[in-house]
Each structure stands twice: as C-alpha cells, then as structure tokens.
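Much of what follows relies on a compact textual record of a protein's fold. With that in mind, consider the following protein and its fold in token form.
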Amino acid sequence: MQGNAVKMAAAEVKQQIIEFAAAKLNPNIVYDLDIKDQWIHIIDRPERGLSYFDVVKEAIRGRDGQTIIGRGHYTPHRKGMVSPAYSFGVQAIEAGVDPDTGRIKLINCVTAHDSGQVINPLGIEGQLEGAIAMAAGYGFTEDLLMDEGKILNPNFVDYKVMRATEMPDTKVIGVETYESEGPFGAKEAGEGLTNPTAGALGNAIYQAVGVGIKNLPITPEKVFDELIKKNKRKKS
C-alpha cells in the first residue's frame, strides 16, 4: 500500500515540475512534456528540453524556497482485504548439533521469496538476508530473561543478537511474478521471511538429533536437556 501511495505522490510532484517547465518551454499543452534521464523534454522533440536539476532549483526559488510536495493515498480495491497483495516464501536451514553439549551451528540458509516484479534486486537481497539475521536471532540466541516483570539482561552483552560470525551461508532466490495491485507490479520483501526461520531451525535440529524444541529461543541448554530426557527414555 505504501508503495502505491508513494507512486501517486511522486506523480503529483512530477506534474508540478512539468507545469513549471512548460511555462519556460511554451509547448501547446502541459502533457506534451516528460522527464527522463534528468532531462525535461517535449515528447515529440526530445532534443528540446531543460535540465531537471535546473528546473527544480528554479521552481523552489520561485516558491520562495518552499518544498515541492505531492500527496498520495491508496486503499486496497479487493473486497475484504487489508492489504492489496500477499507475498509468499519458503525457507530451508541446514544446522549442525553437537549431541554431547547441545551446541548448535547454523550452516546454510536458503530463502525463496515471491516479491512480485523485482525493481531493486540488490535491495531485495539485503532485505531477505536481514530477515534471516533477525529471525535467526529470535529463534536461536535472543533470550529475554525476566524476574517479576524486571528484565535481567537489558543490554547487548547479555542479550545475544546474531553477529556476523554466527550468520550462516545464505542464498536468496527471487521468484518474479507480476502483481496488478502493486506499484509497477511489485510486492513486499523482507519482514514476511522472518516467520519460517525459527520453525525451519527447529525442524533441522529434530532431523539432526531427534529432539523437538517447542519454545524459543532454541538454546544449547534446551537441546542438551531434551537429549538427556531422550536417552533416559531409551534406557527405561
């Protein structure tokens, strides 16, 4: 939704700039102009135009320094939906577990995500890698300890977030589709992929040593305790 609103606001700003440039170029109608490659030009005669930067500076100067502002708003058109579109993703994690200590090591993480029409591939890669780091943190290391409502580890020394050295190798697979309700066919990328990470990690640990951890974070202590219980059940 935000992307559509931003697109509308940008279109309004563009129109204001074009109207200012039209007064200087004197075309027949305002809509004969377009902006491309930092050049405001007459569509039928692209060689005739003005520098985008020069026009913007003059437009702001002509408004006594006031910013050129555009406004946009967007409401999903599909009945009953709180979002114009939903994205989809899948994730796989490879983890190693030391059965003698319960220590866990994240080895690999593969993420596939439907982002609609990809506009900024590097941005999507960064968003999805960031989602892995954030979700792996709450699934693996971030243990918020409390005693009668008081937080016992209110600092980043005792509250363990994922560090670069703890991050697994990551691979991001972008699945391109086209979303008619999205800006230029795009959809979100990032926050949605914080959902499957902890579950994938729990499944990887179960596949490795046969114990299931049902509460987060999945710490070595919890894995070790479950391994002891498992061994006791085997002996009884």
